[in-house]
Amino acid sequence: MAALSSPANSPPTWQPQFTHKPASNPSTQQVMPIMPSRILSFRRSHLPSPRDHKLQTDHLENFADIDTGDQRRHAAAMDLFHFASRDKRQGTSGHSTPKAKGSPKVAPTKAAKLEIEMESPPCVFYGGSNSSGALFSGQLKIIVTDPEVRLTSINMECKANTVTKKPVHKDCPDCINRVSSLKSWNFITEPTTYSRGTHHLPFSYLLPGHLPATTHSSLANIDYALEAKAVTTLADTIALHYPLRVQRALQPSPDKQSVRVFPPTNLTVNVIHTPIIHPIGSFLVQFRMNGVVNKERDAQTRWRIRKLDWRIDEHTRNISPACPKHAHKVGGEGKGQQHEDIRMIGSDAIKKGWKTDFDMEGGGQIEMEFPAQIRPGCNPVCDVDSPTGLMTTHSLIIEIIVAEEHAKNTSIRHAVPTGAARVLRTQFKVMLTERGGLGVSWDEEIPPMYEDVPVSPPGYGTTVTDYFGEDLPVPPEEDLEHMGIRD
Q: What predicted TM-score, i.e. pTM, was given to this entire model?
């Protein structure tokens, strides 16, 4: 059979050719289409599913029908590649195999759990290292979920943990962590059975006032925590870690006045500020500069402020001790490495707002008042001086840029800059602390003790008797007039 011819105007396309193949029976002949080698190799590469086989058979029939046009033939070829990519993703069977889902993991439940309920206000040390401490109290709750549970021991401990961020040996846990026990409680001395429900065990402790407050700095951390542990007769351990935050609040103090002298000039700076600052809120700084004018016979030289910068620096210092195993790195036991860190927690630049008076007696005067505060979001660290070696201090630094001018006494307003300038730098120590609010120390809240109560006033008789003694002497008339008593 000859090949089918395509229209004259259509582009040359592939057309299947049919050949005669002699059959075993000479009387019959079988006609087989010759397909491209790429499609035949693809058909031999996998076994299609019944659905895909029907779709592919339809496409083969479309190939036999050449008169349908080029668009139909191209669509059939794209469908074949589409099924091939799908079968490759889903497997040779043409159907996706669902993934087996494992059984959900269920956490093991314990017979009881521990909770802590605090009854006292937050732990705050009022005052410096001579503070009377902070008293806290609460209840350890045992919540039993089983019908009953038998506990052999219930212990709780108050611990102070110091973590060094730059230890002597970075992989040594003994150089990094230092844990000290402040107080321990042993609630039961023999095995005890607890029924289902909640059981309360009260506790209280007075934290000494010399301890450092909870601190999280760039060099070290100081944390306090209550750790409770209960052990059942089946050797199951029920543990609880309760963080305890300790703060320190210093009482407000009067403003501090400081005077700084800057030789070889005659400039003196007088600054009034509060020595106690807080992480939140601003404080006022009063600034006054004297000696800004040096008068001569025909002319005068004076200083004018061009810019004033202030900032608050936080200076942290920590001594990292070494454990006995790594003591040889620092020269022996009891020694450590010192690290320092300085960061700026607040700053501002002021270019106007001051008052200048060059005519004032005593060399003139420049004065101003500006607010200062800690930058929000910088997480400042309150002042601390720990026996473990951690110390944090703060300072207020003021820098003034002054320029020199020269003017004649006949035309004072027409001053000419001389080109000379100076940077005056001074710093003042401030203490950063938490606000005390309306709270008072624990020793001021309790009622007076029995021995502190004064002696009671004397009692009074219930009856009044008349006086039957001698007549009282009558004072002279002059005394009565002087006392304002007249008949």
A: 0.67
**Nearest one of 188, 182, 196, 258 to 224, comparing CA atoms:** 182
Nearest C-alpha neighbor of 227 from the set 240, 210, 245: 240
> Are 371 and 385 a contacting pair, CB within 8 Å?
no
- Residue 155 is classified by DSSP as E
Please name the amino acid found at residue 441.
S
Measuring CA to CA, which residue among 256, 283, 261 is closest to residue 272? Answer: 256
DSSP string, 270-289: EEEE-SEE-SSSEEEEEEEE
C-alpha angle with apex 103: 99 to 104, nearest 5 degrees?
115
| Whole-number Å distance between alpha carbons of 59 and 35 | 12
Write out pLDDT tens, residues 88-98: 455 544 444 55
Asked if residue 252 lies in contact with residue 275, where contact means CB atoms within 8 angstroms, the answer is: no
Residue at 110: amino acid letter: K
Which residues in the chain land under pLDDT 70?
A: 1-108, 438, 446-464, 475-487
Q: What is the pLDDT of residue 338?
A: 92
CA–CA separation, 343 and 315 (whole Å): 7
Which residues, 6 or more positions from 241, have their beta carbon under 8 angstroms from its beta carbon? Answer: 225, 226, 227
With beta carbons less than 8 A apart as the criterion, state whether 152 and 231 touch: yes
Question: What b/e string do you get for 267-304 counting C-beta neighbours within 10 Å, with b at 16 or more?
Answer: bebebebbbbbbbeeebebebbbbbbbeeeeeebbbbb
Report whether 309 contacts 294 (CB < 8 A).
Answer: no
How confident is the model at residue 203, as a pLDDT?
Answer: 95
CA angle, residues 336, 339, 340, in degrees to nearest 5: 150
